[in-house]
């Protein structure tokens, strides 16, 4: 064949909708798997062949099984498949490949799970059985099971500075959060080097207020799965976050519709720096974002367990050593699991107390190395995963009638527009 008529096999494979997988000694070990990897729908032509893990994986969602005795019918079968189903089949090939077959480690770690977990994102390997064997306890399966998350949340406030007075930022934050009708309890993680204040120094609230003194004082401990957290939803807060009760309520209502994602206020983004061949981190206000920082965000309590027990100890040590990047690491984890971006609510950009921002010596944001460390973290974490999991989004959710020229009495979250 003349060189001008040569074809690139990998290019053909990745540009094809269907790939024939005939009978052969390399069928199970290679041809079938390379079709999955390329998002090419396998057309199985091997009567009686048992597909991998077929007792739990529903291969009808990712492959077409033909009859090798009726080869002439294959073209008409593939032509009859509509575009919507082709897209669904190809998406399922990518899910199954990434979840179970993309590495030797994943194949070895693949164990028998419930068919629901095997055939739905994020797959059985991210639903740790040590946490629960009941799919209803994981945020990924609420929609499939027709279940809704609990109607209340637990606020977890990470505190690293002393409680100086009743007008301290953390006191005002506790009072605002406690007024939410959805708040079940408030947990204060005392990671300050100063002694724990007596109980009478904390504000009186209508919901239980629990103060947990951190023994390690490490940054990663803010995501430890404490037994005291009983609600599905966790509202993660920095001590100097500024949120009104209306903002808390609205963000929680939004999270209930997206319980598998991070939902909150402070948005950040990542980008590829081609001049340095590395990933970059930016806090500039643009039209898209890929992270929502955990200084003011809701997420499911399962991510505390996954953060503590799934992420390698070396990465947690890096976060603790820098006293930085724990929020980036949580965003990497959730995006890697869900393959989806977080959700930003309202146009609010500033979420910190002015006194605790750049000018305070006790604020880690005042450290000139803080931003540089976050740039380093982006690349260390992407190297650990082997890919960049963060997904950009331009979606922002606002309350109904937000900024509309109608009477304020018609608006449910009236205070949000004044902030």
TrEMBL record:
Upper lineage: Eukaryota, Metazoa, Chordata, Craniata, Vertebrata
Residue ranges constituting the Exostosin GT47 domain according to the UniProt record: 9-81
Transmembrane annotation, as ranges: none
UniProt keyword Transit peptide, yes or no: no
Signal peptide per UniProt: none
Gene Ontology annotations of biological process type: heparan sulfate proteoglycan biosynthetic process; ossification
Pathway: Protein modification; protein glycosylation
GO cellular component terms given for this protein: endoplasmic reticulum membrane; Golgi apparatus
Family, per entry: Belongs to the glycosyltransferase 47 family.
Membrane topology: Single-pass type II membrane protein
Compartmental location: Endoplasmic reticulum membrane
Pfam family, one: Glyco_transf_64
GO molecular function, one term: N-acetylglucosaminyl-proteoglycan 4-beta-glucuronosyltransferase activity
UniProt-recorded name of the protein: Uncharacterized protein
Domain (Glycosyl transferase) ranges: 153-402
Source organism superkingdom: Eukaryota
Catalytic activity field: 3-O-{alpha-D-GlcNAc-[(1->4)-beta-D-GlcA-(1->4)-alpha-D-GlcNAc](n)-(1->4)-beta-D-GlcA-(1->3)-beta-D-Gal-(1->3)-beta-D-Gal-(1->4)-beta-D-Xyl}-L-seryl-[protein] + UDP-alpha-D-glucuronate = 3-O-{[(1->4)-beta-D-GlcA-(1->4)-alpha-D-GlcNAc](n+1)-(1->4)-beta-D-GlcA-(1->3)-beta-D-Gal-(1->3)-beta-D-Gal-(1->4)-beta-D-Xyl}-L-seryl-[protein] + UDP + H(+); 3-O-{[(1->4)-beta-D-GlcA-(1->4)-alpha-D-GlcNAc](n)-(1->4)-beta-D-GlcA-(1->3)-beta-D-Gal-(1->3)-beta-D-Gal-(1->4)-beta-D-Xyl}-L-seryl-[protein] + UDP-N-acetyl-alpha-D-glucosamine = 3-O-{alpha-D-GlcNAc-[(1->4)-beta-D-GlcA-(1->4)-alpha-D-GlcNAc](n)-(1->4)-beta-D-GlcA-(1->3)-beta-D-Gal-(1->3)-beta-D-Gal-(1->4)-beta-D-Xyl}-L-seryl-[protein] + UDP + H(+)
Required cofactor(s): Mn(2+)
Protein purpose: Glycosyltransferase required for the biosynthesis of heparan-sulfate.
Organism: Channa striata (Snakehead murrel)
UniProt KW keywords: Disulfide bond, Endoplasmic reticulum, Glycoprotein, Glycosyltransferase, Manganese, Membrane, Metal-binding, Signal-anchor, Transferase, Transmembrane, Transmembrane helix
Alphabetical list of InterPro entries matching this protein: Exostosin, Exostosin_GT47, GT64_dom, Nucleotide-diphossugar_trans
């Amino acid at each position: 064949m003349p060189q001008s008529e040569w074809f690139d096999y990998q290019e053909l494979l990745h540009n094809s909708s269907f790939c024939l997988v005939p009978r052969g000694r390399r069928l199970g070990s290679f041809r079938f798997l390379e079709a999955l990897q390329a998002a090419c729908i396998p057309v199985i032509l091997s009567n009686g062949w048992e597909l991998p893990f077929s007792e739990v994986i529903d291969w009808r969602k990712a492959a077409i099984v033909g009859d090798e005795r009726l080869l002439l019918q294959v073209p008409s079968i593939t032509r009859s498949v509509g575009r919507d189903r082709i897209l669904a089949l190809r998406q399922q090939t990518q899910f199954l490949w990434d979840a179970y077959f993309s590495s030797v480690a994943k194949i070895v770690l693949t164990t028998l799970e419930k068919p629901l977990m095997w055939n739905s994102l994020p797959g059985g390997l991210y639903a740790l059985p040590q946490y629960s064997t009941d799919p209803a306890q994981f945020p990924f399966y609420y929609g499939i099971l027709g279940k809704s998350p609990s109607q209340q949340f637990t606020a977890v406030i990470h505190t690293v500075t002393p409680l100086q007075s009743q007008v301290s930022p953390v006191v005002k934050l506790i009072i605002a959060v406690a007024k939410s009708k959805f708040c079940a309890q408030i947990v204060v993680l005392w990671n300050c080097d100063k002694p724990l204040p007596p109980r009478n120094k904390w504000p009186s609230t209508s919901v239980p207020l629990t103060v947990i003194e951190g023994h390690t004082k490490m940054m990663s401990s803010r995501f430890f799965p404490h037994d005291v957290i009983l609600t599905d939803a966790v509202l993660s807060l920095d001590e100097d976050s500024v949120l009104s009760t209306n903002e808390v309520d609205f963000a929680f209502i939004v999270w209930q519709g997206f319980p598998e994602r991070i939902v909150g206020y402070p948005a950040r983004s990542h980008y590829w720096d081609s001049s340095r061949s590395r990933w970059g981190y930016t806090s500039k206000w643009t039209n898209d974002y890929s992270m929502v920082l955990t200084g003011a965000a809701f997420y499911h309590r399962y991510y505390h367990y996954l953060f503590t027990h799934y992420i390698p100890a070396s990465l947690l040590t890096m976060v603790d050593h820098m006293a930085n990047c724990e929020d980036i690491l949580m965003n990497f984890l959730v995006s890697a699991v869900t393959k989806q971006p977080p959700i930003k609510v309202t146009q609010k950009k500033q979420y910190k107390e002015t006194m605790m921002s750049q000018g305070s010596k006790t604020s880690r944001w005042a450290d000139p190395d803080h931003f540089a460390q976050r740039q380093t973290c982006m690349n260390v974490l992407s190297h650990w995963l082997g890919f960049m999991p963060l997904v950009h989004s331009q979606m922002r959710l606002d309350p109904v009638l937000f900024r509309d020229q109608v009477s304020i009495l018609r608006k449910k979250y009236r205070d949000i527009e004044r902030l």
